[in-house]
Specification:
Belongs to the GlnD family. InterPro entries: ACT-like_dom_sf, ACT_dom, HD/PDEase_dom, HD_domain, NT_sf, PII_UdlTrfase/GS_AdlTrfase, Polymerase_NTP_transf_dom, UTase/UR. This protein is α+β, with helices and mostly antiparallel strands. The protein contains 39 helices and 16 strands.
């Protein structure tokens, strides 16, 4: 095919005269389109894996580039004798293209390599420069992205000496066209230079580069939107292994390292070589799909692309798992394999090239008796001790490294990975259980658990753990896979233990030192999500699994029961704090009745903090921390026999007395008038300072005869801004204010709605900006007040303005959130509680509250929570007579109206709606 293209370009039927450039460009475009289409068609028909397609595409591109080179030689003849004597150049492929693999939208890296006469280098001549320019412009006009350099052989060696990136690119250099002798000379000189420089400098440079790359693209192989090329466990990590092996031994393919006669003496087993091939092929297949789906060099597997790529690769629903979840689990297991292979192969290459380490006897008898020695100052199994014969040595190794502050030698990690399957023999072993619990609850527990997880040890030791490794929850709330989230949560417990989180979680930091059931807490965190992915309630299933695992690990019956209870109720504190009105006495009494024990309350709070902070960096904020603290102290007082929930009338009287004390300088008649304005619910919702501020606001509004008053107050400690609106009450007031706040770009996190005895509404909203911080920019606060006034006066068309608000990124639209409505008449003695679940969007609260108002209901309080793109909003409501809504016909109409409000107009093809009603 390439020969035919060359012949067509040189047009022998025209007497050997090449085609004019414009005609040649048209011919080349057609040829490029044809070869790209052939590869795509074969790949998408599943006739080729991604790796095979990458190799074929590179080979076809070789033919195109070689034809362009031949055409250039004909189109750029020498001008005079001097140019005729110019040294020819070699056209060389470098980088990924040099390795002979090419993704659909990747760059083509070319090196124009020139020699010099009598062994001396000289730069490229005038004709050579014209030829290079002619080729590059032709390639650019074809729409190809070309990375290029023009160097002499000596310049290549010198640049490579100073820059490991250049070394790496030249390591993959492959001759394409031109003067072969020039390339051969470069290859010889570069090989000699590499031998002179040694592997050590290259290895150090690649490790530093990898460390920096992981920091930038993700230091965990279990991020739910992974970068498949640069992230940890991605293609670049596999390529780094290949580069190190190629630098050390000159191999072209990794299987060349298998067998006793291979370079390095057989540092790779056949099974490990197959694992590398599988990972390499799988990642290349994912990469090809990403490029073809997006039409660009996309390397990040975002939420919107995951179901598309998974479906294209044939992943369908199987049992309880969706196709996209199965696909992503395969991806994460492949990433883990890549991490594991790196730890297996890299130290072996290093030692085979640089020589075995000097293993020194243990410096003390304790270390020696445990079966260990030191090599390069790092911990390693003593000569004659083998993990396969003594599996418990693997756990001893990790504990010894922790206790002595030693690093584990790479060769010891290699042995740990290769023998991880032997952990099965340790199930039920008393010494292994004791060491494991010590590692879990001891210093830097997350670090050592992560090492055991990545080595594959945990999956063998705890079979239930294997089911959550690489398990992804297809939502935008969780940042990590289930196993990595769990290890992160263990890490948060360690931070609380060390006092590192006193500023952000003061109560949990104090409580963790008071716990009597510390081991149970750590085990509960380890198991809190162990049953995810199995269908059903993962809390209930996890509680049963805990009853099996804990005794097997040597925990007492009391500890087992505590762990099981904590796993069962690990969501209780957060769901109550964020979804229920903690000012409602019944809320506090119900949760206190369920928890019963102050110790369990402390355990639950600490577990909740660890769980939430481990979800991701944007989940925890001061507002949520405040709600958790307030709930904790209220329940703690009840459990301690205090009067945090005394009789309602007594609490109202106490609140009024406190407010009156704050207004001691007011005339007695004005104080009495203010105290008569609020219904009991109002007095129980705020502290005395807030009551006093409300009194001044109402007084000023009356003096100015103002129909509307808006006040804002930034609460830095809670990361929220408090917005208070005082206006004449009317149906839909909450909805209009919510709409105005949405237009202003404010996100409502909580709300209290009160109608006073004078017919005025005193509504309080707590809002944040898009980043989860206080809404505090002065110009934005001013605009917010104006928008509320315009919305209430009818001058702002709320619905139209909301539609103009910026929509969510396309990558998030693939995550579906079925609308759901739950109505509960048992959660409160005085209100009907409505919980709505739906996809978050600008103006959602406006639409939902408008639907509630349209049903003739009054909203007493609202509790707003978002989990990624999922909104969970809870409203305490009454009917126009101040009673619960218990009529089934009214409840059915309410459910239908809310489901309609939850579904945006453009989402006609959304998932089926689901309604759930509590006993009314």
């Amino acid at each position: 095919m390439a020969a035919d293209l060359v012949a067509a370009l040189l047009a022998p039927d025209r007497g050997g005269a090449p085609l004019p450039r414009d005609q040649a460009l048209g011919l080349l475009r057609r040829h490029l389109g044809l070869l790209q289409a052939r590869v795509q068609e074969s790949f998408e028909a599943r006739q080729l894996s991604g790796l095979a397609a990458a190799r074929w595409l590179a080979a076809l591109m070789d033919g195109l580039v070689q034809a362009i080179h031949a055409y250039t030689a004909a189109m750029v003849p020498p001008r005079g004798a001097a140019e005729a004597e110019e040294a020819p150049f070699a056209l060389v492929a470098t980088g990924g293209y040099g390795r002979g693999v090419l993704a659909p939208y990747s760059d083509i890296d070319l090196l124009f390599l020139t020699p010099g006469p009598a062994g001396e280098d000289r730069p490229i001549g005038p004709r050579g420069r014209r030829a290079v320019e002619f080729m590059l412009y032709l390639l650019w006009d074809l729409g190809l992205k070309v990375g290029h350099a023009t160097r002499t052989v000596a310049e290549c060696i010198e640049d490579a000496r100073a820059d490991a990136t250049v070394q790496t690119a030249l390591l993959d250099a492959r001759f394409l066209a031109g003067e072969r002798a020039v390339f051969d000379r470069f290859a010889e000189d570069f090989a000699r230079a590499r031998a002179e420089w040694g592997l050590g400098q290259f290895l150090a440079a690649k490790r530093a580069e990898r460390l920096e790359r992981h920091k930038r693209y993700g230091d965990s192989p279990f991020l739910v939107e992974p970068h498949i090329k640069e992230g940890r466990g991605g293609l670049r990590d596999l390529q780094t292994l290949y580069w190190i092996a190629r630098y050390a031994f000159g191999v072209q393919k990794m299987p060349e390292l298998v067998g006793p006669d291979s370079p390095g003496g057989g540092i790779l087993t056949e099974q490990e070589a197959k694992a590398i091939r599988r990972a390499w092929s799988f990642l290349w297949t994912v990469r090809f799909h990403l490029h073809y789906v997006t039409g660009r060099a996309e390397e990040r597997l975002t939420f919107d692309l995951q179901p598309v790529v998974g479906a294209r690769m044939g992943y369908t629903r199987h049992g309880l798992q969706d196709g996209v979840e199965r696909f992503m689990k395969h991806f994460f297991l492949t990433a883990r394999d890549t991490v594991r292979l790196t730890r297996l192969l890299e130290p072996a290459i290093e030692r085979a090239a640089l020589g075995p380490p000097a293993v020194l006897p243990a410096p003390d008898k304790t270390l020696s008796r445990a079966g260990f020695a030191l090599a390069d100052g790092k911990l390693i199994a003593a000569p004659g001790r083998d993990f396969g014969r003594e599996p418990v040595l693997m756990l001893r190794l990790v504990r010894m490294a922790r206790d002595r502050g030693l690093e584990i030698h790479p060769l010891a990690l290699r042995a740990l990975i290769r023998n991880a399957r032997c952990a099965v023999a340790l199930r039920g072993d008393e010494e292994a259980s004791a060491i494991f619990l010590d590692l879990l609850t001891g210093r830097d527990g997350a670090r050592w658990l992560r090492a055991l997880n990545e080595a594959g040890f945990l999956s063998r030791y705890l079979p239930d753990w294997a089911r959550i490794v690489g398990l992804m929850q297809f939502d935008t709330y969780h940042v990590f896979t289930v196993d990595e989230h769990t290890i992160e949560a263990i890490g948060v417990l360690g931070q609380l233990d060390r006092g590192d989180l006193v500023e952000v979680a003061p109560v949990a930091s104090e409580l963790i030192g008071q716990l009597q059931s510390r081991r149970a807490l750590y085990m509960a965190v380890l198991l809190h999500d162990i049953a995810k992915g199995r269908g059903g309630d993962h809390s209930e299933l996890g509680a049963r699994i805990a009853q099996e695992i804990c005794p097997a690990l040597g925990m007492t019956p009391e500890e087992t029961e505590t762990v099981s209870w904590l796993v069962l109720h690990h969501l209780l504190i957060s769901q109550t704090a964020f979804k229920r009105d903690i000012e409602d006495p019944k809320t506090i009494l119900d949760i206190a009745d369920l928890i019963q024990s102050p110790e369990r309350l402390r355990l639950l709070l600490v577990l909740t903090v660890a769980d939430m902070r481990a979800v991701g960096p944007k989940v925890w904020n001061n507002w949520k921390a405040t709600l958790l603290r307030e709930l904790y102290w209220r329940v703690a007082e009840v459990l301690a026999g205090g009067l945090s929930v005394p009789e309602r009338d007594l609490r109202v009287t106490q609140a009024k007395q406190a407010a009156a004390a704050m207004l001691a300088d007011w005339p007695e008649e004005e104080v009495r008038r203010f105290l008569a304005l609020g219904y009991p619910g109002y007095w129980l919702s705020f502290d005395p300072e807030t009551h006093a501020r409300h009194a001044h606001l109402i007084r000023e509004a009356a003096a100015a005869d103002a129909p509307l008053t808006v006040r804002t107050r930034v609460l830095e400690a809670r990361s929220v801004t408090e917005v208070t609106v005082y206006a004449a009450d009317h149906p839909g007031l909450f909805s209009r204010i919510a709409g105005a706040l949405a237009v202003a770009g404010a996100s409502i996190v909580d709300a209290r709605i009160h109608t006073l005895t004078n017919g005025m509404a005193l509504d309080t909203f707590w809002v944040q900006d898009a980043a989860g911080g206080a809404f505090d920019a002065p110009h934005r606060l001013a605009r917010l007040s104006v928008l509320i006034e315009q919305a209430l006066s009818g001058r702002l068309r709320v619905a139209e303005e909301i539609r103009k608000v910026r929509r969510e990124p396309a990558r998030l639209r693939a995550v579906t959130v079925p609308p759901r409505v739950v109505i509960d008449n048992h959660a409160s003695n005085t209100h009907t509680v409505i919980e709505v679940n739906g996809r978050d969007r600008p103006g959602l609260l406006h639409d939902v509250t408008a639907a509630i108002s349209a049903q003739g209901l009054q909203i007493a309080s609202a509790h707003i929570t978002t989990y990624g793109v999922r909104a969970v909003d809870v409203f305490y409501v009454k009917d126009v007579f101040g009673l619960k809504v218990e009529n089934e016909r009214k409840l059915a109409a309410l459910r239908e109206a809310l489901l309609e409000a939850l579904t945006p107009p453009e989402a006609e093809a959304a998932a089926p709606r689901q309604a759930v009603a509590g006993a009314a």
